[in-house]
Amino acid sequence: MVVPHEVPLGPRVFVNRTPDFERMTEFWRRRSGVARVGVCSGLPGVGKTAFVRRCVQQARDEGAFPGGDLHVDFGPVDGERLSVSDALASCLTSLGVAKDVLPASLAGRANQLRSLTAELPVLLVLEDVTDPAQVVPFLPNSQASAVLVTSSGRLGELIMDGAEPIPLEPLGGADGAHLLRELAGARVAAEPDAVAELVRQCAGLPVALKVVAARLVARPGLSVAALAQQIAEDDRGFSAFSARGEEKLAAVFSTAYDALDADAAKLYRLLGLLPGADVAPDTAAAVLDRSAAAVAALVDTLDDAGLLNIGSTGRLSLHRMVRRHAAHLARLTDPPETHEAAKRRLVEHLLVKAAFADLAALGPGRYRCTPGDLTQARRSPFTGADARRTALDWLDAERANLLAAQRVAADEGWHDESWQLAEALTALYVTRRYLVDWTVSSELGAASARQAGNAAAEARLRSFGSRAWSDLGRLDRAEEELITKALPIAEELPDVRLRGSVWEMVGRLRDVTAPGEAAEAYQRAIALFTSQEDERGVAFVTLFLGGSQRRNGDWARAEETLRAALPLIRAVPDTRMEGRCLVELGKALHGAGRPEDARREFTQAVEVLQRSGDQFYEAQAHEALLAIAEAEGDESAGRNALARMVEIHIRLKSPRAEELTERLARYSKG
Fold first, then answer.
1. Which GO molecular function annotation, any one, does this entry have (predicted)?
2. How much is the pTM?
């Protein structure tokens, strides 16, 4: 497994903060029996993120955390913050946990993270935390691990529980002058009084000093005194830019903005309006409606002006204070139609790319309400042998922006785009198990589908979203979304495939809530899919029906159903589902008291699942073979099956790995 190094790199130039780095040296060395927790607090713009990221770079260089570093940004996106549960899912996935063994509950995910980090030193960086409750579930179970938190508040409860306070103050005159010299060159040393005034005007905040330094670099003939005077005489300061009653900072940013050409200024303003913490360059090009090359040049201009941050992965962002300045200027400068057009281009760009990602991740045979012409006559950005992984990684990287774009679409009344984004996003949610986001997106999308008059899309989103509610343990809400809302809508519509998909979801919910009623729902779904010649739907639901019959102890009927499912699945074809079907068939035969027949099916399942790469269900086959071997007293076969189970569960980072390892040790001794 690749060791995760998720924390972005810090700024290219970083000076000062010597006492703070000395404190961090002691922090890294500290051992008190529990994971170290540091809370870096201070004003917006004081440099918390840059400081913490530089600390992470130093820790990487020293090899302090062989388990890697994980990054969670709780900063609000379009007014919403990332849920703790989904953030835990992201961390677990980065540590190699397979979705099949990923717990659904927040408590289960927190426990699994603690288990994984008990002997694997990791560093977790949690940015823009507002509440100690966001931190507690991430605390590792090892004194070799550490958590670094950034927050505008001091998070006193964490400090009281033993966290190390790391307050960052604005730079004083000497330190601010030092930073200016490093960024703008030695010429500033010739004007010490003007430099001191410039530092004061910037309130000692590095975010502002970076901007004025960029202005001095861009204008070699501009004296520090002249720049300080320009800022002092600027009367466009905004009340939002006040730091503890000190000088307003808007004039600092305005001075840099005034030097931009028209296109760069427009991009700056539009970036201030976009939802999301950052954007990819192709998204910026789509929003500005310019070529990628043209926007790359404008990005360089904004970077040179000190107004734009370019992350180590190439994504573009504005510091929160700069972003507020850009958004304010956009509202002052541009007519509402310009804002609306930019948002429309953003939504359409992300929607089309998300639709392609959905197709690459889950295949074209999946039932969808989104019209096919959305992607027709366009080239997919996700191609080749790695298309599925690349598509899911893109959805994951953009997940906050995609959900924010969906909210923008709903707020603007673009309801078709809103529900289509929701449908595309399910490809990510069902695969990476972001259950909370799934419920939010599905509800928003279903409401938009209703507003758009698309009853089929509403039924689809509510029925499929019921899986997230069920996995979260909210069976009452799953019942409401599926049985009370989605099913009556679907039953009134002529879309037979939709009705089949909804009845399939009813069967899957009934497997949990009323197992005796699941078969009837599955049989309805099969009949509906059959009438539409939906071979994929018939094949998969027949498998689900056979599994339900097997769990209810109806061995003979389960065998009959599963044997009927096998050729249907092979005709699709789907190797993974074929392997699952063979496992279910083996379990049915074993339950019926036919171990030899069961062994044959399990052995075949192992071969098929090894070809498909689905190790979770392969482990189930080996577990069944182990049970047969133990019943027959075949110690060699049992040891082989258990050894493979251990190997798989360790690779999947399963909570069962430790238990199975101990069992194998006892088995070998016995």
1. ADP binding
2. 0.90
